[in-house]
Amino acid sequence: MNRGLIALGGLVIILVIVGMTLAGTYNRLVTLDQAVQSQWAQVESVYQRRADLIPNLVSTVKGAANFEKSTYIAVAEARSKVGQLNLGSGVPNDPAAFAKFSAAQDGLSSALSHLLAVVENYPDLKASQNFADLQAQLEGTENRIAVERMRFNKAAQAFNTTRDSFPTVIVAGLFGSRFNEKTYFKSQPGSEAAPTVKF
Fold it and tell me: How far is CA 173 from CA 77, 105, 169, 182, in A?
């Protein structure tokens, strides 16, 4: 009888320890996932700030005589593609949605870079205080985007490292896609090549 009670007590203690370990692991994953979600909101916020600046920038550029219409149309179309994305809040958990988001934002970055390069041919536009102010705000926003993307990648790395560690990987697997690995921001394709400078 005593042996039975001791064995039952030992089993109960083992089950309590396993249960507490599982609960602690789950809670740690939730905490790290929330950190990623919070950082994702910051990324979206700075990208939205950039999108909000673009109409003013395009309006200022449109006012320049003989400015290349195709350039600001490309910017407007790229901004429109970004605005049409309706990926929901699960982007960090969905590599395909993350890739769509990144591709649209990279397209907008490329169009803006082209616009600013073309502006170099228009000294009157470059000298405009309104354009200079908008360009400074855009540059500041691009810096914020880079910082928030870096912070997102750090939060994703912390989550992925914990998630893929043993025995956490087993617990994460029990919850299906709830704790999928997070995707990282990467540089734009072709950015590893140095730009060609022509004189």
Answer: 41, 31, 6, 14
> % helix / strand / coil in the chain, to the nearest 5?
80, 0, 20
d(C-alpha 156, C-alpha 116), whole Å:
32
Which region, left, alpha or beta, applies to residue 189 given φ > 0 means left and ψ of -120 to 50 means alpha? beta
**Residue-wise pLDDT tens digits, 77-104:** 888 888 888 777 678 888 888 998 999 9
Neighbours of 34 (CB within 10 A): 12
- The type of residue at 19 is G
Nearest to 163 by CA among 178, 184, 174, 179: 179
Is the distance from CB of 134 to CB of 60 less than 8 angstroms?
A: yes
pLDDT digits (tens, 9 = 90+) for 158-191: 999 999 999 899 989 988 888 999 999 987 665 5
Question: Structural domain boundaries of the chain?
Answer: 2-179
List helix spans (H) across 63-128.
69-84, 95-119, 123-127
CATH 1.20.1440.20 is held by the domain 2-179: yes
What digits encode the pLDDT tens for the residues 144-156? 999 999 999 999 9
